[in-house]
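Human:
I keep going back and forth on a fold encoding question. Comparing notes only helps if you start from a blank page. Show me how you would write down a chain together with its backbone fold. Write it directly below this note and I will take it from there.

Assistant:
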Amino acid sequence: MESRSTTTVVVVLLIVFTFPIWVGIAGGLFGLIVGLIGGVVGIIGGVIGAIGGLIGGLFSWAFNGHWPFGFFHVHTLTIVLIAIIIVLISRSRKI
């Protein structure tokens, strides 16, 4: 009988004294998981921002980047490129 009560006391003391370690490990794992999820969300946001920046940069280059959207200040090269794109699209639809 003495062995059981001693074992129980030792187990209880072990759990009580190692409780902060277990809480720390649980908190660390929680932080790791949430940090990884935040990193994935950040990467997705960065990719979306890069795509938006690319589209915005192309329109800014094509239409002089003026606000409001100044179409009448377009470079000749831009008009030629738009015409070439329209011709290529119309030819590809006929085939």
DSSP finds two helices and no strands in the chain. Residues 2-62 form one domain. The helical segments are 2-62, 76-94.
